[in-house]
Amino acid sequence: MFDSFPGGASERLDRPTYHADLGRIYSGGGIDFLNKLERGQHFQERGFPSWEAFAAGDWERALTLADERREEYAQELRRASQSGVRHRRLRVVEFPVTPYVQWELHVLRVRAEVGDDIKVLDAREIAGIERIQPVPEVVVLGDAVMYEVVYDDLGNADGANRYTDRSLIRETNAGFDALYERGEEFHAFFDREITPLEPPQVTGASGGSRGSR
């Protein structure tokens, strides 16, 4: 699974170019689905108000600010539905859950509550697949283009590697489909693993924005 990915030919895009390219292709028509696979456990989201509150240690405000994005997320899903684009997200989670992932799953809960199609996969279930390398952190737009999202050592968004090889994209989508099938329904995972957790202890953060919420 994902065997061909490390050797695939790609074009490196900086962050603004990546966002512009993704938006252009997404809005250009002809895309019927978006698959998003998230693997990293530590990121910076500078500029995202809920993350800023989380990084400052204000957990209750972080949750309040996350919930305030509810209508924005609902509108995003309505636009996708009207365009005929199905969104699916798979979040791989390591244990013990990192403070960042604990926070992110609260944000994703808001998305799930307005209808976003999200599943969670315990990283221990894919240990065999990841013997050589982790599964890729990717955003795939149909069979047209695929982006491997790139981060610096601090977890700041640093652009993406852009892939257009159709056979590689099909192989990656097939891998995503297989993992998604193994994933757990979001609310079941959240209620069992995240709800009982105490607010995370955050020692501070710095850097740029991941820009993915």
Name some characteristics of this structure.
about 210 residues; single chain; 7 helices; eight-stranded mixed β-sheet; about 40% helix; alpha+beta
How would you portray this structure in words?
The protein starts with 10 loop residues before the first strand and ends in a 19-residue tail after the last helix. It is globular. Strands 1-7-6-5-2-3-4-8 form an eight-stranded mixed sheet, with helices on both faces. The chain is α+β, with helices and mostly antiparallel strands and 213 residues long. Helix 3 packs parallel to helix 5 and helix 5 packs antiparallel against helix 7. The model has no long low-confidence stretch (mean pLDDT 94). 39% of the residues lie in helices and 20% in strands.
In a nutshell, what does this entry contain?
This protein is α+β, with helices and mostly antiparallel strands and 213 residues long.
What is the number of helices?
7
Strand order of the largest sheet: 1-7-6-5-2-3-4-8
User: Which regions contain 5 or more consecutive residues with pLDDT less than 50?
Assistant: none
Mean pLDDT, to the nearest integer, reads 94
**Class computed from helices, strands and strand pairing:** alpha+beta
Task: Please tally the β strands and state the result.
Answer: 8
- The proportion of strand residues reads 15-25%
Q: Please bin the fraction of helical residues.
A: 25-40%
Which value, in Å, is the CA radius of gyration? Answer: 17 Å
End-to-end span in angstroms? 27 Å
Question: Which word captures the global form?
Answer: globular
Largest sheet: 8 strands, mixed
H/E element sequence: EHEHHHEHEEEEHEH
